């Protein structure tokens, strides 16, 4: 076999050898190499990044996953794991010289234990399917990302997915107990346990949100919660976005933790209303959706109190969903906000920054100023309860330079989020998309520490390489670009 | 409030030991030294690194330096009608926030509201190279980078010196009722494990000396209704009871035998190990005073998927925490050296070779 400078077999030979070996490990239909078969795997939910992998493998047992990993490790071939591919940051973008490991065949709910309120699942089980299966016991799985019909629990763990109920019920990290993972070296590890804590370091926290960089998740045990006796939604309209922001703080200051607290601005309201006909007040500058859940008595008490606070904060109208149908309708508008915005603009770019809630007026004001400066409209959808802002920048990729301007605008929003004490990503992950922005949020020593953490799990650096944590060199190059952006005020002056 | 930031002094002390290879023993209020294995080294005293840095009640976030007394943090929160929802045990008047997080201990509310690590949002630390690093932040949702701040919880200072911690805090419940019923341990376990699948405002449940204690918290109406449902005799001033349980001040905890902390699935029937038992966390955390050998206790508990910590007393030359399987230990050792390459922090506090 021809050997390259660094002592490894030359690329093409390695690839042929790899595929031959994979075909020995797996049934023929579980190893895909034809271009048309690879196409569905070329991107995740962030389709601006596309790349065909060398080969796609679809194992169905943990032993097969271990064998694939051992083989790839021996041949020094990189591996990217993939769930349903609904991620929004390019985390599952394949590598052209790597293996795309799909966990789509791991679809079984292994065990539901109603007594201890937990469920053991294969990683390819859909998020919503967990709650559907648990419903028979009066239980559900709390994190509910908007893609919950399609996204899978393995991907949820890898991204630490959130949803609209995070303030009260937490993110994925708060709702899982145990993982089985396979390392790049092919070792099967059990992380966490069926008890409330486990000896040693909290590797469960470290694995959650690690974006497929540390190990491949092959089994997940989640915590289930009792379905609340009652859930009630209030819809409040405001003639001023900032009054709506004030109302959010006032509800929390009153000692009430809503199950969901969502805010939409005028552009988002109108788009959602045209799309979902949820009965939203079209002329409001902002609406708040506030869901209260718990026991019957508690919800009644809180609904009264929240109504009062909303009126005191200057709401022009407060409605309470009178039936479950209406409650679902109120939520339908919010949950379809993204596709709704997709109808009013050829393209949109969804941002995912978090900010301390008190910074909302300042951040919204600045986004509006930039929106005018760039000539790009923005629809704002905000998980107000937990400070997670999703500005959707509307643009047309077919117009020359508009994508570049959109990306620049988006980058300034994320930078602002960091400046006011927030983060460049609340729930979508860094992946490929925000790898440069990591250089803004973290110092070189912090990024080096992240690389060292990865090396503790994957010393060879073969799992999802190049994602989530930028190299220091990349940051240096980005920094040079960044200074250039720092000079933008002068560019603005020239316009006068 | 003492507002003292001595992070530079601490950093210098770490730097100087990196040079000469002296191990450091990180110390806050010295209230939890009894926990874990004995560790030797020059004392790195963080108790003077103190003060609440930021607390905006509307954000539900508090940031404080690691040496801040836990009492000070709790008092500031109480003034704003808030609390640390994981109800941390102090185990002494001098307990600091840093020690609380480093040991990762949680009180009776834990199974219903979450653990210490669940409420950590971010931290600032000194790693073993003497670098000051920040991870996480002051926002509830943040998925940029690995979750290093939560990794620090329960690491007993073996990965770095905590300087600052940001925590999610919650409003105190408007009302709270504690009721008590006489029953057997097996009956209590069956009652407690059913709590998880019922939509009831329970925030503590324990079984002690033939009595099942249940604490209901929430809005006035919710608590009243739930109490009517569960029944039992109401304990008027119940706070001292839960406090004594959390701090190990109940008479139960006066025993000459070693104390073991046993974690199991809550529904697990009473374990057949001779000794005195107290069940907290709705049956998920079981305290045992026993003179049975630790090896035997560990063996029994391992067969049912639980784990055992030798919490107080007992043999010194044994592993205090449940030993790890070999492949996991390898990851632990690599993580330790990724944060602390010269192995200067709290050497051997959790495991002999960590």
Describe the structure concisely for a colleague.
With 496 residues, chain A is of the alpha+beta class. Chain A contains 18 helices and 19 strands.
What can you tell me about this protein's structure?
The complex is a heterodimer of chains A (496) and B (354). Chain A has helices at 11-25, 35-38, 62-75, 127-134, 153-159, 166-169, 203-207, 241-253, 266-276, 296-312, 324-335, 337-344, 360-374, 402-419, 438-441, 444-457, 472-486, 488-493, and strands at 31-32, 55-57, 79-82, 99-102, 109-113, 118-121, 139-140, 176-182, 188-192, 216-223, 225-226, 230-238, 260-265, 286-294, 317-320, 347-350, 353-354, 378-383, 388-395. Chain A is of the alpha+beta class and 496 residues long. In chain A, the strands form 4 sheets. In chain A, strands 12, 13, 14, 15, 16, 17, 18 and 19 form an 8-stranded antiparallel beta sheet that branches. Chain A is globular. Chain B is 27% helix and 25% strand. The longest helix of chain B is centred in the N-terminal third of the chain and has 14 residues, at 7-20. The model of chain B has no long low-confidence stretch (mean pLDDT 95). Chain B has helices at residues 7-20, 70-79, 97-103, 110-113, 116-119, 148-151, 185-195, 220-230, 239-246, 294-303, 326-339; strands at residues 24-27, 42-45, 52-56, 61-65, 82-83, 120-126, 132-136, 161-168, 170-171, 175-182, 202-208, 211-218, 233-235, 259-263, 276-280, 285-289, 307-312. Chain B has 354 residues and is α+β, with helices and mostly antiparallel strands. At the A-B interface, strand 9, helix 7, helix 8, helix 10 and helix 16 of A face strand 7, helix 6, strand 9, helix 8 and helix 11 of B.
């Amino acid at each position: 076999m021809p050997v390259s400078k660094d002592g490894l077999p030359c690329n093409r030979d390695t690839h042929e050898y790899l595929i031959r070996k994979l075909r020995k490990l797996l049934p023929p239909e579980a190893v895909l190499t034809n271009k048309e078969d690879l196409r569905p795997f070329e991107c995740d939910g962030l389709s601006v990044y596309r790349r065909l992998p060398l080969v796609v493998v679809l194992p169905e047992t943990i032993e097969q996953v271990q064998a694939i990993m051992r083989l790839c490790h021996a041949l020094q071939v990189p591996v990217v794991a993939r769930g349903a591919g609904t991620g929004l940051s390019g985390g599952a973008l394949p590598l052209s010289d790597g293996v795309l490991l799909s966990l789509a065949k791991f679809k079984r709910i292994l065990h539901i234990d109603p007594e201890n309120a937990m469920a053991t699942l294969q990683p390819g089980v859909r998020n919503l399917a967990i709650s559907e299966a648990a419903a028979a016991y009066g239980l559900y799985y709390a994190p509910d990302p908007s893609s919950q019909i399609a996204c899978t629990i393995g991907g949820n763990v890898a991204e630490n997915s959130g949803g609209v109920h995070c303030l009260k019920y937490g993110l994925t990290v708060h709702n899982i107990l145990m993982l089985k993972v396979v390392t790049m070296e092919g070792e099967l590890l059990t992380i966490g346990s069926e008890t409330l804590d486990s000896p040693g370091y909290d590797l469960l926290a470290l694995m959650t949100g690690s974006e497929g960089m540390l190990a491949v998740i092959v089994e997940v045990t989640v915590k289930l919660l009792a379905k609340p006796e009652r859930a009630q939604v209030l819809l409040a309209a405001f003639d001023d976005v900032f009054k709506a922001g004030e109302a959010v703080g006032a509800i929390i200051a009153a000692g009430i933790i809503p199950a969901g607290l969502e805010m939409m601005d005028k552009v988002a309201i109108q788009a959602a209303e045209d799309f979902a006909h949820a009965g939203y007040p079209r002329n409001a500058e902002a609406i708040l959706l506030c869901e209260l859940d718990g026991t019957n008595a508690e919800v009644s008490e809180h609904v009264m109190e929240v109504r009062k606070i909303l009126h005191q904060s200057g709401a022009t109208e407060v409605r309470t969903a009178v039936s479950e149908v209406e409650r679902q309708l109120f939520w339908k508008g919010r949950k379809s906000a993204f596709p709704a915005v997709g109808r009013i603009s050829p393209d949109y770019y969804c941002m995912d920054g978090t900010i301390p809630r008190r910074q909302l007026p300042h951040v919204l004001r600045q986004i509006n100023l930039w929106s005018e400066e760039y000539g790009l409209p923005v629809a704002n959808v905000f998980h107000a309860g937990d400070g997670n802002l999703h500005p959707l920048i509307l643009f047309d990729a077919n117009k020359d330079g508009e994508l570049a301007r959109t990306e620049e605008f988006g980058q300034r929003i994320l930078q602002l989020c960091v400046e006011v004490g927030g983060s460049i990503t609340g729930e979508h992950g860094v992946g490929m998309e925000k790898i440069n922005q990591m250089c803004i949020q973290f110092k070189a020593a912090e990024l080096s520490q992240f690389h060292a953490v990865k090396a503790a799990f994957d010393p060879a650096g073969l799992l999802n390489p190049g994602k989530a944590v930028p190299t220091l060199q990349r940051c240096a190059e980005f920094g040079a670009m960044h200074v250039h952006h720092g000079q933008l005020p002068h560019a603005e002056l020239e316009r006068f | 409030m003492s507002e003292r930031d001595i992070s530079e002094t601490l950093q210098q002390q770490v730097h100087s030991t990196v040079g000469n290879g002296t191990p450091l023993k990180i110390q806050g209020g010295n209230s939890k030294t009894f926990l874990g294995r004995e560790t030797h080294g020059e004392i790195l005293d963080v108790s003077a690194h103190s003060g609440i840095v930021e607390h905006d009640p509307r954000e539900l976030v508090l940031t404080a330096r690691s040496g801040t007394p836990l009492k000070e943090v709790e008092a500031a929160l109480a003034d704003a009608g808030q609390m640390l929802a994981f109800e941390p045990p102090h185990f002494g008047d001098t307990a600091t926030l840093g020690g609380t997080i480093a040991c990762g201990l949680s009180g009776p509310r834990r199974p219903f509201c979450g653990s210490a690590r669940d409420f950590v949002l971010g931290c600032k630390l000194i790693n073993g190279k003497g670098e000051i690093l920040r991870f996480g932040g002051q926002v509830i949702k943040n998925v940029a980078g690995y979750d290093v701040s939560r990794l620090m919880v329960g690491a007993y200072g073996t990965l770095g010196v905590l300087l600052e911690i940001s925590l999610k805090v919650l409003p105190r419940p408007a009302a709270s009722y504690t009721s008590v019923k006489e029953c057997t341990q097996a009956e209590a376990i069956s009652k407690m494990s059913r709590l998880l699948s019922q939509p009831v405002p329970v925030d503590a449940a324990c079984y002690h000396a033939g009595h099942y204690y249940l604490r209901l918290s929430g809005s006035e109406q919710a608590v009243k209704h739930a109490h009517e449902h569960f029944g039992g005799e109401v304990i008027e001033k119940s706070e001292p009871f839960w406090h004594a349980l959390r701090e190990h001040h109940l008479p139960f905890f006066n025993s000459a035998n070693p104390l073991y902390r046993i974690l199991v699935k809550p529904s697990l029937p009473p374990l057949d190990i001779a000794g005195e038992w107290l069940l907290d966390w709705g049956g998920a955390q079981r305290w045992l005073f026993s003179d049975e050998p630790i090896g035997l206790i560990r063996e029994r508990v391992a067969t049912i998927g639980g784990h055992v910590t030798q919490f107080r007393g007992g043999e010194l030359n044994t592993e205090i925490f449940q030993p790890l399987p070999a492949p996991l230990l390898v990851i632990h050792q690599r993580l330790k050296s990724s944060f602390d390459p010269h192995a200067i922090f709290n050497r051997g506090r959790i495991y002999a070779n960590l």
